[in-house]
Amino acid sequence: MGPTKAIIKDQALYEASTGKFIKDGFASRHEIDDYVKHHYLALPVIDNAGNAWQLDGKPIYCYRGSQYETVDDRRVHLARCPDCGGMGIRADEFVVESDCIRCTQCGHEFDARLEMMET
Ligand SMILES: [Zn+2]
């Protein structure tokens, strides 16, 4: 079991899967990040502009830098766009050998394997 997936609503934290209230009373986003870090929680992935990634309207969580999961613990093949930090999805699902990723935000195409080697 990984960290509990949480979402932020009106400066309060809730469990993403059940909607269960976790904690409120945060003065700033920084305080939320701090709490999350110390309580084995995970927050949705956001792009460089601070917008949360959405796949079929659901937030996405990232573990160990490159492993992405949906709220219901389904592993998804995604990569972070090096330009805008947006969500990149596999450009052509029919070509198995290809690992070409296309950013849903800016349209930038990049190779996920290359990204992993660099980081
Ligand atoms: Zn992008």
Strand content: 35-45%
C-alpha-based Rg, rounded? 15 Å
Distance N to C terminus: 25 Å
Ligand types = zinc ion
Trace the largest sheet across and list its strands.
3-2-1-4
- List low-confidence stretches: none
Count of domain modules: 2
Q: How many strands in all?
A: 12
The helicity comes to 10-25%
Report the biggest beta sheet as strand number plus sense, adding barrel if it closes: 4 strands, mixed
With helices defined by DSSP (H or I, 4 residues minimum), what is the helix count? 2
Structural class computed from helices and strand pairing: mainly beta
Shape: elongated
Order of helices and strands: EEEHEEEEEEEEEH
What's the rounded overall pLDDT mean?
88
Structure overview:
This protein has 119 residues and is mainly beta. It has two domains: 1-43, no CATH class; 44-119, no CATH class. It has two helices and twelve strands. The chain has helices spanning 29-38, 112-118, and strands spanning 4-9, 12-15, 21-23, 41-42, 54-55, 58-63, 67-70, 75-76, 78-80, 87-90, 100-103, 109-111. The strands form three sheets. The chain has a four-stranded mixed β-sheet with strand order 3-2-1-4, with helices on one face. Strand 6 (58-63) and strand 7 (67-70) form a beta hairpin. It is elongated and about 45 Å long. It starts with a strand and ends with a helix. The mean pLDDT is 88. Bound molecules: zinc ion. Zinc ion (ZN) is lined by residues 81, 83-84, 86, 103, 105-106, 108.
Keywords:
mainly beta, binds zinc ion, 12 strands, 2 domains, 4-stranded antiparallel β-sheet, elongated, 119 residues, 4-stranded mixed β-sheet
